[in-house]
């Protein structure tokens, strides 16, 4: 009988420690930075990005920066309007010519914004 209580107490302590650790720990968060978007835009313009990579980054809301969130939404709209994922799967461009021009404009605007605000947007 004493062995039962020892085993019970050890299991109870382990369970309580696990619950406490889970309650005190925070969930991991991914924060998209301007450099992440610039890298993606460059990869798309060089035909190095897949549709999956595009949707992984652009499909994730950016809550910590309203400017980047607006840029992300513009990028989503750009994919809906000018996206050609079927050609990207065959080694072509992810966007039509007009889409690449608009993406280049977004990329240049983000690069200028990043240069203006300096280290504020460097993660």
Could you explain the architecture of this structure?
By secondary structure, the protein is mostly helical. 69% of the residues lie in helices and 0% in strands. The protein contains six helices and no strands. Helix 2 (34-45) packs antiparallel against helix 3 and helix 2 (34-45) packs antiparallel against helix 6. It is elongated, with a radius of gyration of 23 Å. The N and C termini lie far apart (58 Å).
Task: State the main characteristics.
single chain; 123 residues; mainly alpha; 69% helix; elongated
Chain-wise SSE layout:
Layout lengths: L1 H23 L9 H12 L5 H8 L7 H17 L2 H4 L8 H21 L6
Helix pairs in contact: 2-3, 2-6, 4-6
Summarize this structure briefly.
This protein is 69% helix and 0% strand. The chain contains six helices and no strands.
Shape: elongated
Please tally the helical runs, counting DSSP H or I stretches of 4 or more residues.
6
Low-confidence stretches: none
Helix content: 55-70%
Give the overall pLDDT as a whole number: 88
Largest sheet: none
Specify the structural class: mainly alpha
Percentage of β-strand residues: under 5%
């Amino acid at each position: 009988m004493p062995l039962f209580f020892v085993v019970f107490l050890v299991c109870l302590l382990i369970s309580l420690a696990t619950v406490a650790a889970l309650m005190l720990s925070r969930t991991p968060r991914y924060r998209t930075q301007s450099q992440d978007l610039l890298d993606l835009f460059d990869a798309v313009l060089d035909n190095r990005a897949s549709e999956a990579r595009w949707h992984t980054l652009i499909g994730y809301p950016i809550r910590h920066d309203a400017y980047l969130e607006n840029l992300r939404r513009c990028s989503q709209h750009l994919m809906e309007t000018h996206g050609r994922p079927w050609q990207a799967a065959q080694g072509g461009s992810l966007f039509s010519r007009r889409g690449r021009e608009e993406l280049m404009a977004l990329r240049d605007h983000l690069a200028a914004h990043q240069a203006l605000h300096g280290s504020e947007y460097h993660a």
